């Protein structure tokens, strides 16, 4: 191509207006047959220049930049297939078709090429057309990049150069026809493709049809192993494909059966930071593999011809492709195009699956960031629990019953703070213990929690609780020594007023003194703080309701007996005998919740084996559990969620199920999750608690109670009812 044309065309990528005017006459005088194309290309560049993001020699098309910014799937494509792989116009039509396949599968194509010394990640229609027609384009590998850029040349990028550009742009999946490899007699000639070493040092997933049979496939796989490249065949077989043939006689180390499995592999490689690539080898479609033997025979003949003619180095592959296409009367070209289309199809599916996984991980990081910055305060008791479980159906009082005894850390406040801590939060926990051996055990067990707000008092005993439960897991008898909870006074808690005023949510355990509850409620009233009250029995449930303090609460989580006690404290009528049938229980709970919701934001009524009834403001067919910003007139409803089934023999400890439910519910609310997801998180946490000897299961994690992470789990449909 003549110099005036090149100068005029690419001057538009710099200081457009001045240089364009200076070079315009040169374009007009140029007699090169591509003059018209170049003039159109230049005009297009003027229009598009402002929309391209570039960093030095790298330019990323805006569609690619936007997709990457939004974590949408992007597929990198090489351009040597355009400049050196096929004759015009087959090269252009194939490139356009491959890009169309990528788009149709929901991904953004990013064809990589070098134009006038600039590496473009994503090509416009005009740029792709230019490369397809460019007769003197350079075949650009890693080795050639510095020279081509320094001389302002144009060319098509090979696998290695495309990998470099794709990684620079932040693209993780690259689709090509086939990669280079170790040439036959490579142990003597040292003719090894740069594609292999690039795979060993660039963290890109390359989707290809394996390597051509003209290469030494066994040594190629050995070389990839030495480079630390993870190789996996895609599909039902572990056979490593040989481009035109689905089998090469060698096996890949691994196999991935579908896009999601491949995406998990790529995500793992990225997460590990191993800095080497992943090769996904995709066999050619069976209907196009039939001509494989004919093509293989032609390849052998072409290899012999190349050797006789002294063709070596980078000229070998183009010569072989041309001769094989001649000898097979175009069958090799058709097969080549078919496998490229197939690779684009599968590569796009993998990119989409990877995008979903990366989006999920990104959202989890955002949630974790919100969790770490969210300020939660839990005020309540710490107990050392002794859980005695009988081994017979009935317990005989007045005599020794066979059973087992287990010691653990408990206390309603501690349990909720423990649950929140295991779900990614770090609440400030305010409590009190004695200075005794039980206290040492508590602090040792609670190392994962923020216990800076727990005071240690001399001459006081750490609270202890003993529960005797039946073989089926029901509570038979409970005894508690909890006098130290009286020391969690208003004066002590007021030392944490700064944390209280900046908190997203404050949780109060019903074991703390009434004066402390009133103090926190007064802060909530004056500073619009969301407060969750967790009653522990019917007597303690009344504490906030002995004054107007309860009107400053946002969330309350009683059982039915505690809900009755709350109503009774307000002078409201309650039934003397609680109903037995589920429908009557739900109707009563909803009726008792109605007067409290005049001021409360939400009531979570726990019903044991019957699940939970959530009552509050109606929003989109459910109850609005999101943190309350202000009080307002609302339409009220209730939603019943059945409990998750737990076999009696699996029930180990019932003491922490309600606290696990409450803690996980709070975690979901702080994470701004939908109401159904919040409740399901709570139900999952409660089920895990029942099966653990500890009140809060030590294996509890954010992942273990995330409903989105449970596959094939059948949830019982919640029952909806209006309550006002």
- Helical proportion, percent range: 40-55%
Give the overall shape.
Answer: elongated
Named CATH topology of the largest domain: UDP-N-acetylmuramoyl-L-alanine:D-glutamate ligase
**Mind telling me the C-alpha Rg?**
35 Å
- Strand tally: 27
Main β sheet profile? 12 strands, mixed
Strand content: 15-25%
Could you report the average pLDDT, rounded to the nearest whole number?
Answer: 86
CATH architectural group of the largest domain: 3-Layer(aba) Sandwich
First-last Cα distance: 80 Å
Oligomer: single chain
What is the name of the CATH class of the largest domain?
A: Alpha Beta
Kindly report the name of the CATH homologous superfamily of the largest domain.
Ribokinase
């Amino acid at each position: 191509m003549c110099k005036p044309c090149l100068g005029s065309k690419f001057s538009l990528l710099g200081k457009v207006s001045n240089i364009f005017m200076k070079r315009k006459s040169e374009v007009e005088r140029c007699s090169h047959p591509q003059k018209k194309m170049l003039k159109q290309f230049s005009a297009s560049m003027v229009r598009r220049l402002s929309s391209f993001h570039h960093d030095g020699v790298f330019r990323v098309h805006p569609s690619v930049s936007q997709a990457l910014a939004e974590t949408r799937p992007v597929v990198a494509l090489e351009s040597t297939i355009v400049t050196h792989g096929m004759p015009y116009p087959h090269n252009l039509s194939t490139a356009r078709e491959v890009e169309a396949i990528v788009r149709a599968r929901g991904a953004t194509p990013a064809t990589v090429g070098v134009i006038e010394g600039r590496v473009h990640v994503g090509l416009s229609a005009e740029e792709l057309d230019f490369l397809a027609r460019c007769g003197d384009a350079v075949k650009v590998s890693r080795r050639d990049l510095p020279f081509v850029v320094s001389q302002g040349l144009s060319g098509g990028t090979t696998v290695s150069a495309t990998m470099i550009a794709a990684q620079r742009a932040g693209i993780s999946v690259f689709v090509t026809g086939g990669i280079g490899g170790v040439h036959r007699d490579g142990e003597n000639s040292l003719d090894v493709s740069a594609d292999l070493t690039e795979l060993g040092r660039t963290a890109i997933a390359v989707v290809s049809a394996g390597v051509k049979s003209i290469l030494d496939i066994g040594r190629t796989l050995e070389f990839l192993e030495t480079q630390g490249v993870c190789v996996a065949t895609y599909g039902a077989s572990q056979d490593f494909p040989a481009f035109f043939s689905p089998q090469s006689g060698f096996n890949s180390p691994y196999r991935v059966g579908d896009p999601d499995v491949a995406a998990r592999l790529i995500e793992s490689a990225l997460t590990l930071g191993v800095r080497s690539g992943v090769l996904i080898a995709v066999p050619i479609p069976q209907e196009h593999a039939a001509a494989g033997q004919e093509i293989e025979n032609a390849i052998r003949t072409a290899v012999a011809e190349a050797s006789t003619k002294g063709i070596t180095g980078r000229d070998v592959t183009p010569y072989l492709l041309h001769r094989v296409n001649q000898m097979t009367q175009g069958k090799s070209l058709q097969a080549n195009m078919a496998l490229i289309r197939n690779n684009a199809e599968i590569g796009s599916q993998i990119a989409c699956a990877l995008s979903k996984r990366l989006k999920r991980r990104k959202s989890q990081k955002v949630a974790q960031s919100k969790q770490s910055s969210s300020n939660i305060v839990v005020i309540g008791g710490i107990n050392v629990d002794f859980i005695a479980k009988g081994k017979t159906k009935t317990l005989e009082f007045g005599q020794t019953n066979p059973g087992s005894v287990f010691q653990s850390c408990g206390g309603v406040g501690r349990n909720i703070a423990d649950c929140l801590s295991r779900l990614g939060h770090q609440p400030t926990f305010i409590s009190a213990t004695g200075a005794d051996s039980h206290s040492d055990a508590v602090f040792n067990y609670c190392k994962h929690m923020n216990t800076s707000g727990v005071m240690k008092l001399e001459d006081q005993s750490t609270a202890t609780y003993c529960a005797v439960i039946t073989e089926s897991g029901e509570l038979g008898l409970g005894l508690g020594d909890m006098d130290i909870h009286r020391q969690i006074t208003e004066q002590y808690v007021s030392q944490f007023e700064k944390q209280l005023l900046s908190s997203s949510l404050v949780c109060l355990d019903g074991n703390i003194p009434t004066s402390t509850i009133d103090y926190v409620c007064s802060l909530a009233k004056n500073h619009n703080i969301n407060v969750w009250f967790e009653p522990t029995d019917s007597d303690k449930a009344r504490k906030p309701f002995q004054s107007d303090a309860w009107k400053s609460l946002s969330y309350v989580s009683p059982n039915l007996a505690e809900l009755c006690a709350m109503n009774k404290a307000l002078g409201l009528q309650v039934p003397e005998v609680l109903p037995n049938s589920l429908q009557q229980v739900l109707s009563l709970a909803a009726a008792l919740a109605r007067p409290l919701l005049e001021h409360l934001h939400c009531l979570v009524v726990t019903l044991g084996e019957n699940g939970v009834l959530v009552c509050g403001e109606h929003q989109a067919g459910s109850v609005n559990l999101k943190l309350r910003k202000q009080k307002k007139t609302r339409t009220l409803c209730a939603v019943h969620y059945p409990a998750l089934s737990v076999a009696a023999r699996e029930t180990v400890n019932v003491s922490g199920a309600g606290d696990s439910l409450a803690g996980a519910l709070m975690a979901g609310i702080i994470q701004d999750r939908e109401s159904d997801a919040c409740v399901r998180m709570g139900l999952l946490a409660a089920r895990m608690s029942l099966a653990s000897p500890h009140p809060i299961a030590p294996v509890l994690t954010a992942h273990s109670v995330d409903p989105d992470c449970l596959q094939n789990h059948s949830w019982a449909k919640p029952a909806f009812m209006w309550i006002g």
